[in-house]
Every structure is written in C-alpha cells, then in structure tokens.
C-alpha cells in the first residue's frame, strides 16, 4: 500500500507545483503559447496523416541506423578487446626478449670496447701480451704510412709491427709519432 500512496503523492505534488507556477504572468503566457503551438500541430497532423507517418518513419529509420551503428561498433570493440587479450602475453614476451637482447648487445659492445682500449693501450706502449710488437691501425696502411705486405693486399685491419721497424725507419714518420704517443 505504501508504494501506491507514494505515486499518488508525487502526482499531487507535481500538479500543485504546476498550479502554483501559473500565478506568474510570464509562465502563464509561455505555457499558453506552447499550448497553442501543440494545438496547431495536432490540427495539421489530423489533416495530413501521411506527413505524420513519414516523420515517424524517418525518425524510426534514423534510430534503427543509429542502433545498428552502435551494435557494429560494439562488436568491433569487443573483437579488438579479445584480440588484445590474446596478444598481450605475446607482446609482453616479445618486449622482454627484445629488451634482453639489447641489454646483452650493449654489454657485449661495452666489454669489447673495454677490451679494445686495454689492448690498444698496451699495444701502443709495445707491451702487447704475447708479443713485443706495436699495433698499427689500418688507417696507417691505407694512408701509405707503413711499408710492408699488408699495404699491398689491403686485407689487414691492423697489424703488430716489430719495434725494430720503428728503429730502422720502416714506419713513416707521422704514423710512428702517432703510435708512440
């Protein structure tokens, strides 16, 4: 019973509010203007029911098209969400593998760089491990600053030259000066 009293009281409150708002002159004139417009529209559609039917059909078609578009978009988004759920572990694994590969490559490059620096430092001093020769880079061969067979073949990336070659003047002056510094 309480539910039916609630509805009745809401309706009575709404009607009371409408009556009280009619005490204002501008509200009364606006409501009368709207009522006249509704009356004129009703008379027009009573005389021209085909126009009313056409407008209703047009609105119905627009709503159907909107619903179909919404439904299509919903299905598309659902399929993309499902696809993303399937790809997420694969992409995550791929990103982790790529990161690991780059970190490993970076570490290898840094290690090789440090090894080369150590080797070049000791080689330029004539203290290369396992030899008493000095390392001469390929640039010295390419520029014709070093005499020897590697210049003719062009295959060397650098070589160790005996200290005697420096003493005997077989390595050109500028390369010799660069090697000793």
UniProtKB/TrEMBL annotation:
Residues 143-181 are annotated as: Disordered. It comes from the Bacteria. This is YtxH domain-containing protein. It comes from Bhargavaea cecembensis. The lineage of its organism: Bacteria, Bacillati, Bacillota, Bacilli, Bacillales.
């Amino acid at each position: 019973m309480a539910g039916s009293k609630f509805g009745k009281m809401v309706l009575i409150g709404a009607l009371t509010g409408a009556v009280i708002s009619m005490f204002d002159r501008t509200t009364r004139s606006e409501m009368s203007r709207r009522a006249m417009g509704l009356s004129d529209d009703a008379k027009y559609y009573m005389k021209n029911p085909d126009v009313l039917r056409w407008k209703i059909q047009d609105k119905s078609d627009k709503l159907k098209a909107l619903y179909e578009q919404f439904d299509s978009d919903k299905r598309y988004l659902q399929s993309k969400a499902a696809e993303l759920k399937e790809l997420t572990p694969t992409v995550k694994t791929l990103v982790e593998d790529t990161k690991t590969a780059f970190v490993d490559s970076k570490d290898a490059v840094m290690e090789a760089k440090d090894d080369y620096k150590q080797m070049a430092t000791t080689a330029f001093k004539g203290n290369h491990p396992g030899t008493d020769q000095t390392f001469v880079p390929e640039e010295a061969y390419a520029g014709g600053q070093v005499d020897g067979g590697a210049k003719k073949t062009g295959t060397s990336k650098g070589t160790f030259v005996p200290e005697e070659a420096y003493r005997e003047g077989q390595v050109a002056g500028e390369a010799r000066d660069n090697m000793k510094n």
